[in-house]
Amino acid sequence: MLAPGVSVASGASVARSTVAEGASIGEGAELDGALVGRSCEIGARARLGRGCALGTGSSSARARR
Prior knowledge:
With 65 residues, the protein is an all-beta fold. The chain has one domain. The protein is built from no helices and ten strands. The chain has a four-stranded parallel sheet, with no helix packed on it. It has a three-stranded parallel sheet with strand order 2-5-8, with no helix packed on it. Strands 3-6-9 form a three-stranded parallel sheet, with no helix packed on it. This is Glucose-1-phosphate adenylyltransferase/Bifunctional protein GlmU-like C-terminal hexapeptide domain-containing protein. It holds the Pfam family Hexapep_GlmU. It comes from Rubrobacter marinus.
């Protein structure tokens, strides 16, 4: 579920996740089963899986490999 005002960049995928108002999801990010709070910033190519929860105003940089 995507709340109003959510920005999803090109190539990002959101499945079985809840994303609150004003959140931003970066290019190529993958969310599957995540809970993202208001005004969060998910970085490009970040991966958030089942059980991952970010509180209001949090940010997630992309994971290094």
